[in-house]
Backbone:
């Protein structure tokens, strides 16, 4: 740990917080936004047998949640390697 | 073979598998007992987390709840899945880096305080016992209907099985049993869903059939037909909401934060070898959960449509067999008010009085019979319901036993206790917890899904803020954390008890504060916790230097221990 300067560490953390912030904004938008607050206006749009707001509330938001986590995993693995804080050299 | 025989075969086979797995993977050290030696591969941990997570409430209760609530049920779907995003982004990787065994371990160490640790243990026990109550009712329902035994005997059988593998196998045994249970429960959920989707819409994927056209040649969309049926019979329209927007918002938030704060879910992320696997196993867990959670609303819509089509104005004299079977359990009640011999099933807005009362909890179990699926499918669903209830019960029992043996005894009362003594205490505590769970099974409190919803409110108001602040701020100190947890939990518990136990007659939207129902109050408790913790931390001394270093340390992945392996 000692080889990592504190400015370097701070930048790693800021980047992490940026990713988390952006992903949580999307998380909020698809569930609380599309599924709850905007459900009525979106329901005027129809996709097949679904009203769009209803679809986001009972289907779409869940699909987006799964994608968000895997995107985060990918972003963080790349960030860990770029800042040399990944675990590849750890035993076990 | 009839339904009864198939149920015995399916349940018997699945139980044999669980016991075999339990014997093969029994725990030999406290490290294996508490966190499976931190050696579980992420995909398997994802499956185990999914089974741990998806309880009787998810399997048996949820689709039924949504079937009767329509769009209002969305809060449960989004709440119980969106929490995993919080878990993966805000908690799991850091808690894995921190290591150790339990949530109270983190709270106690991060807030350098035995008081904080004990407060966390009390919250963990409170949440786990509330939650376990919901599971046992699920076990009782399945046994009483499908194995034709008395509910009480059914609960005893279930408890015996859980006791065997939780006490013997610890986390290691539970993890691998849960992987098997996930496979059983998801198969049992998807098979009837696919059958019914094919039958009703001609589309084999329930998620698509949900938005598809009916196969009866009318060219009408399923959801339009369901909206029409519900409107005609005086129920609220299926895709329209009746709950206040603010209430739905708060319920969803309470369920999400609660999911991320449930001790038996968090502890699963201590069991993987690395930080990066803690992140990815949260993703796998949600993928496996989403498989069921995106199917459930489809099942709910199919079941409600089928039910309304089947019973509306049907002559009571020739109702199908499932109807009389469920009547025998008392979960379905018909009363011929107007004496015309026909079933009138109507909603509040109808001028015709309703004659049929259906318990939410029977919808999923009765669905295959309502749709006249083959008998083996009905047996499979019973096995799946039991897998869901037992896997969650086992995970909870483990949290209870770990809290008692590790957090209370080893870390608080008797630090010099030997490894062997600690393991023995953990097993005795698990045994004790089984008995308490059995009591709840025989004297069940309320609806499965609602009881469980309360556990979430409490988890949201206690752990979630304490852990998030512990990771994302360095300045939150022990005074703030303790005061926050106490304030959040006390407020939430008080609101819940006031409206559900003390004054159930006042439990209506007119009396709720700002229209927030008891299910959503955990969100307010959480906000109180955050506000109190931050406020008090500002006016009291900052945490010592080594704690601020600990926070720096858990923010980077490198250096996560190989798990706390101690050999007995």
Residues:
């Amino acid at each position: 740990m000692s080889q990592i300067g504190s400015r370097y560490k701070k930048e790693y953390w800021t980047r992490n917080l940026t990713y988390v912030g952006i992903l949580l904004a999307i998380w909020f938008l698809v569930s609380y936004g599309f599924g709850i607050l905007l459900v009525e206006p979106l329901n005027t749009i129809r996709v097949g047998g679904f009203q769009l707001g209803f679809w986001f509330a009972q289907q779409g938001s869940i699909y987006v949640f799964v994608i968000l986590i895997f995107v985060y995993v990918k972003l963080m693995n790349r960030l860990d390697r770029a800042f040399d804080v990944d675990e590849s050299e750890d035993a076990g | 073979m009839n339904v009864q025989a198939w149920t015995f075969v399916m349940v018997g086979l699945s139980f044999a598998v669980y016991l075999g797995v339990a014997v093969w993977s029994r725990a030999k050290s406290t490290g294996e007992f508490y966190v499976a030696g931190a050696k579980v591969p992420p995909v398997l941990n994802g499956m185990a987390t999914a089974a741990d997570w998806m309880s009787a409430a998810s399997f048996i209760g949820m689709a039924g709840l949504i079937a009767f609530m329509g769009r209002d049920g969305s809060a449960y779907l989004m709440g119980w899945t969106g929490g995993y995003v919080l878990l993966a982004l805000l908690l799991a990787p850091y808690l894995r880096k921190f290591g150790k065994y339990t949530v109270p371990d983190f709270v106690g160490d991060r807030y350098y305080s035995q008081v904080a640790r004990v407060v966390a243990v009390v919250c963990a026990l409170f949440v786990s016992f509330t939650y376990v109550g919901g599971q046992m009712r699920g076990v009782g329902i399945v046994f009483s209907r499908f194995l034709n035994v008395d509910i009480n005997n059914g609960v005893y059988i279930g408890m015996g099985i859980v006791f065997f593998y939780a006490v013997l196998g610890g986390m290691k045994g539970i993890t691998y049993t849960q992987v098997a249970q996930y496979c059983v429960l998801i198969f049992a959920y998807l098979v009837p869903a696919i059958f019914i989707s094919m039958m009703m819409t001609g589309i084999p994927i329930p998620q698509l059939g949900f938005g598809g056209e009916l196969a009866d040649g009318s060219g009408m969309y399923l959801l339009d037909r369901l909206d029409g049926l519900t409107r005609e019979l005086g129920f609220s329209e299926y895709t329209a909401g009746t709950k206040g927007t603010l209430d739905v918002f708060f319920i969803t938030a309470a369920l999400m934060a609660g999911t991320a704060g449930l001790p038996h879910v968090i502890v699963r992320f201590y069991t993987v070898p690395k930080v990066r696997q803690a992140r990815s196993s949260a993703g796998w867990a949600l993928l496996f959960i989403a498989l069921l959670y995106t199917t459930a609303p489809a099942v709910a819509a199919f079941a409600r449509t089928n039910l309304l089509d089947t019973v509306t104005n049907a002559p009571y004299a020739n109702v199908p067999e499932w109807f009389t079977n469920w009547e025998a359990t008392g979960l379905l009640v018909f009363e011929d008010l107007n004496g015309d011999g026909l079933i009138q099933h109507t909603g509040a807005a109808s001028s015709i009085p309703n004659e049929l009362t259906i318990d939410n909890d029977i919808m999923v179990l009765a669905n295959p019979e309502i749709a006249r699926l083959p008998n083996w499918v009905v047996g499979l669903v019973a096995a799946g319901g039991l897998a869901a209830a037992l896997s969650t019960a086992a995970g909870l029992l483990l949290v209870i036993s770990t809290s008692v043996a590790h957090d209370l005894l080893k870390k608080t009362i008797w630090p010099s206790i030997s490894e062997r003594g600690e393991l023995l205490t953990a097993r005795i505590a698990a045994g004790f917890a089984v008995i308490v769970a059995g009591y709840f099974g025989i004297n069940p409190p309320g609806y499965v899904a609602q009881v469980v919803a309360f556990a979430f409110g409490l988890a949201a108001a206690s752990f979630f803020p304490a852990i998030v602040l512990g990771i994302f701020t360095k300045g939150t100190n022990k005074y703030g954390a303790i005061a926050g947890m106490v304030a959040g939990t006390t407020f939430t518990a008080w609101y819940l008890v006031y409206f559900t136990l003390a004054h159930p007659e006042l439990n209506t939207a007119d009396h709720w504060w700002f229209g927030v129902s008891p299910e959503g109050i955990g969100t307010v408790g959480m906000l109180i916790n955050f506000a109190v913790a931050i406020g008090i931390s500002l006016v009291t001394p900052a945490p010592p230097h080594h704690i601020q270093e600990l926070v720096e340390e858990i923010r980077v992945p490198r250096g996560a221990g190989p798990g706390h392996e101690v050999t007995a």
